Amino acid sequence: MGKPKYSTWVKSRTMPLSEIKILDKWRETLPDAEEQQLCYERYIQNGYFDRSIVIDDGKFLKDGYMAYRVARAVGLETVKVSQKHLKIPYQEQQPPK
Prior knowledge:
Blueprint: E1 7-16, H1 24-27, H2 33-46, E2 54-55, E3 61-63, H3 65-73, E4 78-87
Helix pairs in contact: 2-3
């Protein structure tokens, strides 16, 4: 029998921007200024981001750092996020006690 496969499912919700945790690797990376300006302009024009802010179960940012930075810059208190959850294979789930 091969290794069990893990899959993920995604839940969209709105959460406070202040609750999103940023790893140092993101903080040390400066996005391309032109692309960040374009993200900002699209947000101002459309009222929503053209890219997703993705977090994990621990509320750590996994993708969408540019949208996160723009949200902070325009003073948003809450943002729509996609939260990825790990689905554990059936074989490893423990029966309830």
